[in-house]
Amino acid sequence: MISFALCNPTDIRFGKGQIAALNGLVAPDAVVLLLYGGGSILRNGIEQQVRAALAGRHIVAFGGVEANPTYETLQRATAEGRARGVDLVLGVGGGSVVDAAKFLAAMIAVDENDPWDRFVSGDFPTNTLPVGAVLTLAATGSESNAVSVISSVKRDLKLPFCNERARPRFAILDPSTLVSLSRRQLENGVVDAFTHVLEQYMTWPVNAPVQYGYGETLMRVLVQWGPRLVVEGSSESEEDEARENIMWAANQALNGLLGAGVPQDWSTHMIGHAITAVYGIDHARTLSAVMPSLMRHELHRKKAMLARLGRTVWGIEGQDEEQVAASAIDATEDFFRRMGCPVKPSELGIAFDAEAIIDHLVRAEQVQLGEHGMIGPDDVRHILRTR
């Protein structure tokens, strides 16, 4: 196992009715910037629950955060937050809103209007504002990690940023908030969480039986309960259990525990980010379209862990390691299909230009991808041209 250090975890309040816990988590005299997305929380009652729990606090609401949050929108939110003297950023929504909240907490704290280049270099302010989250979509685990993925329209870039000071101090996870989501949103969430586990698992073996065993459990939970979350005809109790299990698994998939002490990949995510930046396609669907092709391309380097995935998650038997590994890729691809997601770049429904994706990766300085840093532009070109 590689040496590692874990930061203090987020204070998580999980379960139905936990939005009321905000009253004890937020100081009575706090000035709260309530950040949200397209407005669904105004229609489904979540915003009213948040305001009721924060009664007596001064609330500054800012909506309009995009599904792929943009830096330019956050610049406007920064001006509002500074002018109103906010001292806590509360993201109420899915992973995009929580990503935006973490990035915004750093933007408000710096004494400049365009800190993009500073943040790209990893120079975040020590006085980053505290962040809280009320999660309404289970997918990214953003509510308890330190990463934000932000797009700049001006720069035509979508990049990940890691700022440990912005890791949410607390997160409310109420599975009942998932009730109003569309089937597509639920499908995306399950696939996103599953790929998060794979990015931290599908590399080369190290002495990490705890992390690997936990990751395998999470993948089995997602495989078991993901389809139940979206199929019609499930009983009310099954739907409740599915929401609970998926929301918790998605959180655990990317809160830092699985990746502690193990090599990580993330090449699928970097390629997926580029596809979203160029074509605006749902993040999870870019992942499902890229990952099977990438796994086949990398089979010779990932064979041992792919074979383990086949045996422990998919129940594939056999002595030949390469055959089991190849069957594991087929099973993963089939799961993505069952979740309603594309499994090849050619299935994304666009006139696909691999060179535009590679151009984004070059400008983002992401040309040595994967756990070995050996996936370059030619490899990406081959992966994206899989039919």
What does this structure look like?
The structure is a single chain. With 387 residues, the chain is an alpha/beta fold. The protein is built from 15 helices and eight strands. The chain has helices at 22-25, 40-43, 46-53, 71-84, 95-109, 116-120, 183-199, 209-230, 236-253, 267-279, 283-297, 299-312, 321-338, 354-363, 377-384; strands spanning 11-14, 31-35, 58-62, 88-93, 131-135, 147-152, 157-162, 170-173. The chain has a six-stranded parallel beta sheet with strand order 1-8-5-4-2-3, with helices on both faces. It has a two-stranded antiparallel ribbon with strand order 6-7. α10 (267-279) packs across α11 (283-297) and α11 (283-297) packs antiparallel against α13 (321-338). The radius of gyration is 20 Å and the shape is globular. The mean pLDDT is 95.
For the biggest sheet, the summary is:
6 strands, parallel
What is the N-to-C order of secondary-structure elements (H for helix, E for strand)?
EHEHHEHEHHEEEEHHHHHHHHH
Give the structural class.
alpha/beta
> How much is the average pLDDT?
95
The geometry reads as globular
For the largest beta sheet, what order do the strands appear in spatially? 1-8-5-4-2-3
Distance between the termini: 38 Å
Percentage of residues in helical conformation:
40-55%
How many E-type strands?
A: 8
SS summary, helix count: 15
Unreliable segments (pLDDT under 50, ≥5 consecutive)?
Answer: none
Gyration radius over CA: 20 Å
Measured by DSSP, the beta-strand proportion falls in 5-15%
